[in-house]
Amino acid sequence: MTREIAPPTASRLADGREILFFSADGAPSIRVDRRDLPARPTVPATTVRRDPTTGDNVIIAPARQERTYKPPRTMCPLDPDPAGLSSEIPAEDYEVVVFENRFPSLATPDGFAGERPLEADPLRAEWPGLGRCEVVCFSSDHDGSFAGLSQRRARLVIDAWSHRTAELLARSDIEEVYCFENRGEEIGVTLTHPHGQIYGYPFRTRRTAALLRTAEQYRAEHGADLFEAVLAAEIADGARILVRTEHVTAFVPYAAKWPAEVHVYPNRHVHNLAELTDAEADDLAAVYLTLLRAFDALYDAPLPYIASWHQYRSGVAEGYLHAELFSIRRSADKLKYLAGSESGRDAFVTDKTPEAIAEELRRVIG
Predict the structure, then answer these.
(1) Phi and psi (nearest 5°) for 242?
(2) In 170-320, which residue ranges form alpha helices assigned H by DSSP?
(3) Which of 53, 100, 138, 290 has minimal Cβ neighbours within 10 Å of its Cβ?
(4) Is 75 a residue whose pLDDT tops 80?
(5) Counting beta carbons within 10 angstroms of the beta carbon of residue 69, is it exposed (0 to 12), middle (13 to 18) or buried (19 or more)?
C-alpha cells in the first residue's frame, strides 16, 4: 500500500502563479506577495521543435535569458520574505516550498485549450511548449544544502516530490515528470539557495525513450525486467554496492560514465515516488542523505552534482523508479569536461574504473 501524503497549503503569487507550502511542523505563516509583476502570458511563450535528423525535441525558450542570475545575497528570490516585496516566497519562514517557475521552459496558461498542430512539414515540426516547470525549495536556510537536512526534512522533500509527481502525471498535457537538483556553480547553478526543480514535459525525453527501448529489447530477448535484473546483478556481484538497507540499494553502476556516479533503487519494483510506502520513503531519505554527505566528504569542498530521478506512470510495462547522482569533478582540483567524444558523439570516456569510484565512496561513507 502506498502512503498518504498530507496536502500542502496552497496560495498564489502576485502574478497568479501557484505556490505550495509543505509542512511537518504545523501550518506555515503565509503572507501576501505585494510585488508588481508582469502579467503572465495567456498563450504558450515557448515552443518545441523536432530535430529532423535525430528526432530530438528541442525547447525554444528565449524569455529565459531574462531569468534571475546570481543575485546579491540580500535579493535572493528563494529566501522567506514576510513583507512580500523581494522574494518568491512571502512567508515568515518555511519548511519545503514548491512554486511555478517565473521563467519557465514549459507552461500551459490557465484556460489554454490549444492542441498540438498537425506536422505537415517533416523538416519543420513545431508545437507549443505546453507543460509545467516548478521550483522546489528544500529549506529556508540560504546557506544550507540538501546534505545538511535532517532525515525528517529530507523525507518531507520526498513527499513533496511525490505529491507533485502524482498531480502532474494526471495531466493530459504532460508525458513525463522529472525531479532533479543541480548543485554548484561548476554545474551552472545561478541561485545558491538550496533548491531543485520539477519539469513536466509534454513529450518523452530522449534519455527516457532510450532506457525504455533497451528495457523492451531486454524483455524480448531474456523474458525478464531489465531494471530488476540490473539491481539483482549488482547485489550478487557486490563490488560496487555502497549502501544496502531493507528497502533501498545504492551502487556505482557497472559502466559508470562520471567521475563520481551512484544509482539508487528501491528494492521493491515501483514506477514513481508516489508509489513508495512510508517505510520505503523513510529508508530512501536516509540513504539519499548518506550518499550526498559522502559526495561532500570526497574532497575539501562540497562536490558539484546533478541528482536525477527517473519516474514512470503507474502500471506501464517498463520502467523502475531510480535516482542517478553524479558529479563532473574528477579530482580535488580538476573537472571532467564533455569534449569532442562526449559532446559530439555521446561516447563517454572515463578516467576511473567504477570499482575505484565505489572504493573511494565507501571509504568516506565509513
Answers:
(1) -105, -45
(2) 206-222, 226-237, 278-297
(3) 53
(4) yes
(5) exposed
CA–CA gap between residue 20 and residue 89 (Å, rounded): 10
Per-residue pLDDT tens digits for 82-128: 999 999 999 999 999 999 999 999 999 998 887 777 778 999 999 99
Q: Using an 8 Å Cβ cutoff, are 291 and 250 in contact?
A: yes
Active site residues: 195
Provide the 10 A C-beta neighbour count for residue 126.
15
Joined together, the cell numbers standing for residue 30 give: 503565509
Distance CA 284, CA 250 (A): 10
Distance, in Å, from the CA atom of 320 to the CA atom of 234, rounded to the nearest integer, reads 15
Candidates 105, 125, 148; CA nearest to 52 is 125
Locus of grid cell 531489465: 226
Distances, alpha carbon 227 to alpha carbons 101, 281, 283, in Å: 33, 19, 20
Spatial neighbors of 325 by CB under 8 A, at least 6 apart, are: 261, 262, 263, 264, 291, 292, 295, 305, 306, 307, 308
Q: Is 199 helix (H, G, I), strand (E, B) or coil?
A: strand
* φ/ψ of residue 324, rounded to 5: -120, 125
Residue type, 27: A
Contact between residue 106 and residue 201 where contact means Cβ atoms under 8 Å apart:
yes
Instruction: Give the Cβ contact number of residue 310 at 10 Å.
Output: 21
CA distance 310 to 216: 16
pTM (predicted TM-score): 0.97
Report how far residue 56's alpha carbon sits from residue 209's, in angstroms, rounded to the nearest whole number.
10
CA gap 333, 173 in Å, rounded:
44
307 exposed, middle or buried (CB, 10 Å; 0-12, 13-18, 19+)? buried
Tens of pLDDT, residues 324-353: 999 999 999 999 998 999 999 999 999 999
> How far is 156 from 4, CA to CA, in rounded Å?
12
Which cell numbers hold the place of 2? Answer: 502506498
Other residues' Cβ atoms within 10 Å of the Cβ of residue 245? 15
Instruction: Specify whether the CB–CB gap between 270 and 132 falls below 8 A.
Output: no
CB atoms within 10 A of CB 7: 9
